[in-house]
């Protein structure tokens, strides 16, 4: 039976400990394509902290119950009741007991990809957040921790590989049959969402890792047959992650084996199941011919992320799903730090902040805004968001900024020490940092509770006579859904005062203290900071390294920003200064286009970028970031209201052409200087050279000039790796309508058997900013390479159209909105999670100009009116439409 279509909201304040605990789980899973039988033996006992005399309430979803027995005796029909979502044992004896439950599920019919399902014939599971209940009846909540033993049985032909969590115990033939079995035991108590099993015909690459204390861990990565050569980079990233977590956080691995399985059908990126990570194959498989530098970087980061969950998520898990950021924000922070250490720290920071501003800021500014730790939800699947992950990581980063390197590590050490084995809360986490450092973090905790992006307005006043410099800071936090009033936040504002020679001036506050580690603590609605002994007019470099996830405006002039873009000692702010100039230009140019005024001059930006391009001391990857302008949605976010995506697109294209024309010789020079010197290697330095060369090509061709396009064609023809080939293909697709079809066809012919490359081909076409794109995308939904059943295909084609093609998704005639609404309805019956994510592309609909806003609202209302919506889509659509 389907789940309740209008689920009641779950509230954090209603949390109660479970009434019954589960100590051990024995599963016997007999795999079968359409009727897999699961025998579960649960050793349970009343929770001393629960309500006395309680019934046993287990969760279940779309299960077929075959039998149930208590301590070996079948339960009478009157002793239990089942509803769509539960099985209740009505009056169990109040003592330790054993429940044996037999269920049957159909993995081949499981299109939601939650619970036990099949991907390219292999059996696999996905249990986070509430998928275990689709395998057996269970108290499916993260604060019920049990020790699991799993026996899997299958046809040897069909599933020669049988994997589950923990360590392998035993395997062999099932006497007298064509079947075989394997038994796995996981000694670490874990919540059900971390359960996993896999059965299938898979190839393996093997390696091993010796931990800091000398234990040998067998490592395996399982992939579709024939794809093992593409798993080498993931294995390398895994070993580096294991070493790094020992060195930086003192976290050692705790089982004899660590396995990763790559599957083609997966709702998310990857999953940290204990000892058996399951990955979307997009984040495992890479070869120079099929993966871009960005793909390699993602693989490295996600392999690390899932591995790091072993301590932050698995050994210490979440008490309830409101605490999701406890594992996700913290683990994102940890994977960001890992990638920063493996690559360029400033460039990693720049791309992380771009992601935050591009995805989290719009979420925080629209109807789907929610706190890093929400206090209520109707469907937990909809809270795997940029706010929980990315803003959650920023909050951990701020803790580190506030406490310093050592204070932060002391807090982490205490957290691991105090809470190993626990299902913990955000309060538990913060208490470790407070206790380890003797500080009060109660106001800092507002970052978890208040949604919305704080705004800091900063102005600087230099007094030549008094030799002082005063910074006035005004803090505001706009109202967000359910939170009309806000309190002031504690904001660590890192800054520098840059003197006329480009060097930082010493910073002494008028009370004689130095701003500790260059960080001011903003805690009040209005606050002033006075620096003394400032002999020359400084330029303030504010929010260095993006020390706080805020929107900052200041009274810096364009000339100040050009100066910072050239001289700031903080690389992030050097980047940000030029972006700020570009953003201001684009906002002004967009307004000019809509009113027929003259476009502003791009001279300041030309000056800043020209200087960056010719600075030989800069990392090429950094220059590439500098050359890439704020996106159309960045501009839309800045405008915030009455947004016309066509005007933004035109303004941005005009700016790109102007930069191209003004900087041609410098761009050509950098392009030529960064030609490849040897075979492709995915390391950061080589990737940086390619990134710069490709950024130059992208701008050169933006002019639409014959030499620019000729260069792009040659780049496409000569490419010996996917990074270069795909960049050239995008440049042609976006800028050369005449060369486009031929290049797209050639690319498809070459890679048609490679679904992950076909995804790039689909995504690119969906992003072309032309009226013909909608028809093209519609047509591609009927292409043999496309399937509504595979989340990667859907996200590449429909997700890219809705999320990365501002002008066509938001077509003035409303056809883009209608198309995406239709796609959501089409998908909802099959895979509600993917459908709900697609629908979230409407999150900024209220900021559109009236015509487009009306068409978005019509599309949303049409979705809302459809009977039988999933809870996932129902939740997103109703929050999206709630009056602002
Ligand atoms: N927990 C996964 C992660 O590492 C994400 C995920 C959530 C995967 C839900 C599947 C289902 O972030
Ligand atoms: Zn995670």
Characterise the protein shown here:
The longest helix has 34 residues, at 386-419. A hairpin with a 2-residue loop joins strand 10 and strand 11 (122-126). The model has no long low-confidence stretch (mean pLDDT 97). The protein is α+β, with helices and mostly antiparallel strands and 884 residues long. It is 41% helix and 21% strand. It is built from 25 helices and 32 strands. Strands 6-5-9-3-2-12-15-14 form an eight-stranded mixed sheet, with no helix packed on it. A five-stranded mixed sheet has the order 17-18-19-21-20, with helices on one face. Bound molecules: phenylalanine and zinc ion (ZN). Zinc ion is lined by residues 305, 309, 328, 331.
The neighbouring-strand order within the major sheet is 6-5-9-3-2-12-15-14
- Specify the structural class: alpha+beta
Biggest sheet layout? 8 strands, mixed
Radius of gyration: 28 Å
| DSSP helix fraction | 40-55%
Report the count of strand segments: 32
Low-pLDDT stretches: none
* Overall 3D form: globular
**Which cofactors or ions or other ligands sit in this model?**
phenylalanine, zinc ion
Q: How much of the residues is beta strand, in percent?
A: 15-25%
Number of helices: 25
Q: pLDDT average, as an integer?
A: 97
Separation of the first and last Cα atoms = 35 Å
């Amino acid at each position: 039976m389907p789940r309740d279509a209008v689920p009641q909201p779950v509230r954090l304040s209603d949390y109660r400990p479970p009434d019954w605990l589960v100590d051990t789980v024995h599963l016997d899973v007999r795999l079968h394509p359409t009727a897999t039988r699961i025998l579960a033996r649960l050793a349970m006992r009343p929770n001393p902290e629960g309500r006395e005399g309680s019934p046993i309430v287990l969760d279940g979803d779309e299960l077929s119950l075959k039998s149930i027995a208590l301590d070996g005796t079948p339960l009478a029909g009157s002793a239990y009741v089942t509803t769509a979502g539960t099985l209740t044992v009505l009056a169990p004896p109040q003592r330790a007991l054993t429940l044996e439950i037999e269920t049957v599920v159909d993995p081949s019919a499981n299109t939601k990809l939650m619970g036990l399902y099949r991907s390219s014939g292999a059996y696999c599971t996905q249990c986070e957040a509430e998928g275990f209940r689709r395998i057996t009846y269970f108290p499916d909540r993260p604060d019920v921790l049990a020790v699991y033993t799993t026996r899997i049985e299958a046809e040897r032909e069909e599933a020669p590989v049988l994997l589950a969590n923990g360590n392998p115990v035993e395997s062999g033939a099932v006497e007298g049959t064509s079947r075989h079995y394997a038994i796995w035991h996981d000694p670490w108590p874990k919540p059900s969402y971390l359960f996993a099993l896999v059965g299938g015909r898979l190839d393996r690459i093997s390696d091993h890792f010796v931990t800091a204390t000398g234990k040998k861990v067998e490592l395996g990565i399982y992939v579709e047959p024939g794809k093992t050569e593409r798993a080498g980079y993931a294995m390398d990233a895994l070993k580096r992650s294991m070493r790094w977590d020992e060195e930086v956080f003192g976290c050692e691995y705790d089982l004899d084996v660590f396995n990763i399985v790559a599957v083609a059908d997966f709702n998310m990126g990857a999953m940290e199941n204990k000892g058996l990570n399951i990955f979307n194959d997009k984040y495992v498989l890479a070869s120079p011919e099929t993966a871009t530098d960005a793909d390699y970087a993602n693989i490295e980061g996600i392999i690390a992320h899932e591995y790091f969950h072993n301590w932050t998520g698995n050994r210490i898990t979440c008490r309830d799903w409101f605490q999701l950021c406890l594992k996700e924000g913290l683990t994102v922070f940890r994977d960001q730090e890992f990638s920063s250490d493996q690559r360029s720290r400033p460039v990693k920071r720049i791309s992380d902040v771009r992601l935050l501003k591009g995805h989290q800021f719009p979420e925080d500014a629209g109807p789907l805004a929610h706190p890093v730790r929400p206090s209520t939800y109707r469907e937990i699947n909809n809270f795997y968001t940029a706010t929980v992950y990315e803003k959650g990581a920023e909050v951990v980063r701020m803790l580190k900024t506030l406490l310093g390197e050592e204070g932060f590590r002391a807090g982490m050490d205490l957290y691991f020490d105090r809470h190993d084995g626990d299902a913990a809360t955000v309060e538990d986490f913060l208490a470790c940092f407070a206790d380890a450092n003797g500080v009060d973090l109660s106001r800092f905790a507002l970052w978890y509770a208040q949604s919305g992006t704080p705004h800091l307005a900063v102005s600087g006043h230099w007094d030549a006579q008094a030799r002082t410099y005063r910074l006035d800071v005004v803090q505001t936090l706009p109202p967000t859904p359910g939170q009309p009033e806000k309190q002031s936040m504690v904001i660590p504002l890192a800054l520098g005062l840059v003197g006329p020679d480009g060097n930082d001036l010493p910073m002494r506050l008028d009370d004689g203290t130095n701003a500790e580690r260059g960080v001011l603590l903003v805690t009040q609605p209005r606050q002033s900071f006075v620096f003394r002994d400032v002999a020359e007019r400084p330029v303030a470099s504010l929010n260095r390294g993006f020390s706080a996830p805020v929107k900052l405006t200041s009274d810096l002039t364009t000339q100040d920003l050009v100066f910072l873009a050239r001289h700031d000692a903080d690389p992030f702010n050097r980047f940000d200064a030029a972006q700020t100039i570009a953003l201001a230009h684009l906002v002004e140019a967009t307004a000019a286009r809509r009113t027929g005024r003259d476009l502003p001059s791009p001279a300041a930006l030309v000056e800043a970028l020209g200087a960056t391009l010719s600075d030989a001391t800069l990392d090429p990857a950094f220059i590439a970031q500098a050359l890439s302008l704020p996106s159309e949605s960045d501009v839309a976010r800045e405008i915030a209201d009455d947004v016309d995506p066509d005007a933004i697109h035109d303004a941005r294209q005009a700016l790109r052409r102007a930069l191209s024309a003004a900087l041609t010789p410098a761009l050509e020079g950098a392009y030529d200087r960064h030609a490849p010197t040897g075979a492709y290697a995915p390391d950061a330095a080589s990737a940086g050279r390619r990134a710069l060369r490709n950024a130059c090509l992208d701008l050169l061709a933006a002019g639409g000039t014959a030499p620019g396009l000729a260069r792009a064609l040659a780049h496409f023809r000569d490419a010996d790796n996917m990074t270069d080939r795909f960049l050239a293909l995008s440049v042609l697709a976006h800028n050369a309508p005449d060369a486009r079809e031929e290049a797209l066809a050639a690319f498809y012919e070459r890679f048609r058997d490679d679904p992950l490359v076909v995804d790039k081909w689909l995504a690119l076409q969906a992003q072309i900013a032309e009226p013909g794109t909608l028809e093209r995308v519609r047509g591609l939904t009927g292409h043999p390479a496309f399937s509504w059943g595979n989340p990667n295909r859907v996200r590449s084609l429909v997700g890219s159209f809705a999320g990365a093609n501002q002008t066509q998704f938001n077509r003035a005639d409303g056809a883009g909105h209608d198309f995406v609404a239709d796609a959501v309805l089409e998908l909802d019956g099959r895979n509600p999670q993917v459908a709900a994510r697609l629908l979230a592309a409407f999150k900024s609909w209220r900021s559109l100009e009236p015509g487009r806003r009306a068409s978005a609202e019509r599309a949303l209302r049409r979705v809302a009116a459809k009977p039988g919506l999933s809870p996932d889509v129902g939740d997103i659509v109703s929050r999206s439409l709630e009056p602002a």
